[in-house]
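Run log, item B.
One chain of 537 residues. Sequence copied directly from the ordering sheet:
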Amino acid sequence: MKQYLRRDFLKASASTLITASLADALIPSAHAWSAQPELDWDAGRVTHLLPSVNDRNLLLKVSLTEAQTAAPYLLVGGNKVSGRMTDTEGKYWEFFATDLVPAKTYPLSLQAHTGKTLCQPWAIDTFPARQANPDHFRLMLYSCAGGHEQQTFLPLSTRQRLFKRALSFAPHAAIANGDQIYWDLLAPVSSKASANKAGAEQLAGKFDRADVIFGGTNEAVLKQVANAQIASLYGTTFRSTPIFFIQDDHDYFDNDEATDDIITFPPSHFMLQMARATQHMYYPEHLFDPTRPRGLPGSGAADRQQGISESFGTLRYGRLAEVLMYDVRRSQTLAGPSAVFVDPEVERWLKSRSENSDAIHLVHSPSNPPGWTAGKWGEWYPDMLDKNGKLSTAVAKPYWQAGWLAQHDRILSALSADTKRIPLVVSGDLHAIGFGQISRSGKQNFNNNPVNVALTGPIGTRPGGWPSGRRGIGSTPSLHLDMHEEIKPLEQHGFTIADFYQDKITMRFFKWDVNNQTTQAIDTLEPFFVTELKRPG
C-alpha cells in the first residue's frame, strides 16, 4: 500500500493547489487508513476533525490552531466545498459535501482560502447506495468517552490507545453513544465532582446562564471545556472513519437527577443551547435520511445544514444494515402515565422502520439502555435502592414517570414482533459491558423472539463513575423483566466490534481492566466474549 508521508505533505503545502489526480495517486483507500490511523500523517494546523457520511453526503467538523480571516475550503475529489464557520472566532468550521457517488473513496484536502494546505490530504469512503447489497459491514461501538483527565477520568492517552486498538480492526463506521462531555452544572450530586469541584473554574472558567452561548464569555468557557474532552481526545484519529455521535444527559451539561429542589430534565433553554453549541462546533449531526420524518424534534433548524437532525439519526449501509440512533433526553417529558422519553413522532418513526424497512438487519441505538438498571432516576425502569441497598420496586421512585416504561414496552414489542430480523439494541450510559436477551417486559412476552441487548463499553470512566462506585451496587436486570444475561455488566473500560453479514451479526466484546492490566496490554486486546446472532429463517 502506498503511503502519503510527512515529506509529501510538506511539498504539497508549498503549492497553492493539490489536484484531484495527485490526491488520487497519493492516498490509499480510506478503509485501509482506518486500520492504521496515525502512521506519519501530519495534522498541520488542524486541532481536530470528525467526519460523518451516508451514501451521498459528507459532513466534516474541524477546529484549527489559527483563526481564518476567510472561509477555508475542502477539496472532495477535486470539487471545492466552502467551509461554514461554527464559532465566532474563525477557528471552528464545518464542510458539507453533497451529490457524492455511493461506495467511492474520495480524496480530501483541507485548504485555506489562499490555497495553502492546512493538513496532509487523506481519504474517506461513502457508504453503499441504499439499495446496494454488500456482504459485510463492520461497526465500532462504545460510550462515555468524555471527561476531563484532571478530574480523574481515564488519561487521554489511554482512551486514545483504546480507540486505536478498536480502529485496528478497520471498522467501516463508529457510533459514540452518549456522554461525549462531563461538566455537570446543577445536578446536586454530580456537579460537585464536575463544574463545581474545587479547581474547575481555574480549568475552564464559569458559565453565565443568563447570557447567550456564542460571542462572549460562555463561548470561551465552552471551548475550554470541550477542547479538553473532545478535540484533544479525538484529534485526527477518526479522519477516515465515519463517526456518529448520540447525545445523552451529560451532553446537556448535567446529570439526570431529581430532588425536591431540582429536576434536571427535560433540558432547560440553557442546557439545550449548550448541547447544540457543542455539537455544532465539535462533532457531526445526523445526515438526511429519506425515511426519517423531517420534522422530528431537533430537525430542520435554520442554523444547520439542510436535512440535518440533531437528536435522531440513521446509519444505513446499503440494504445490509440500518441503525436507528436516538437521544432520549431532548424530548423527555414529565407527564405521569403519558410521559415519554422520545417524542411520539419519534416512536412512530421507530415502529414504522420495523414494519417497513427493507434492510436485512435493523438495530436500535438509544442513549439510555434497556435491560439493566442502576437505580438512577432518569432510567426506563422503576427500580431504586431500598434501605438495605438492594434494587426494589416496592417503594415508588421519586419523580420517576410510569409513561417512560410504557413507551419502553411498546418499543421492545415492535422489535420482537419483527420476526424476519434479529431484535438488537446497542447502547451505553451505564458504564459497563454487558449482553443478554429480554424474554418478557411487564405483560409483554417476547419468548418467540427475545430482544438482544448490549452495553457496548465505556471509554473514559473515572473511578467514582461506575454504578457501584456511587451506589454501592452494580447494574442488574430490572425487576420488570425476565432476562438471560450472557455477560453480566462488567465495570471495565472497553468497546464492541459488530460485524453484519447477510445471514448473521457477530459481536465481539473487548475489555480492559485499569486496575490489573498495563496500558500496553490495550495494544493486543482480543475479545473476551463473542456471540453470533443468526438471522431468522
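Observations after the first pass:
- Residues 1-28, 33-37 have pLDDT under 50 and may be disordered.
- The CA atoms of residues 319 and 358 lie 7 Å apart.
Flagged for discussion on Thursday.
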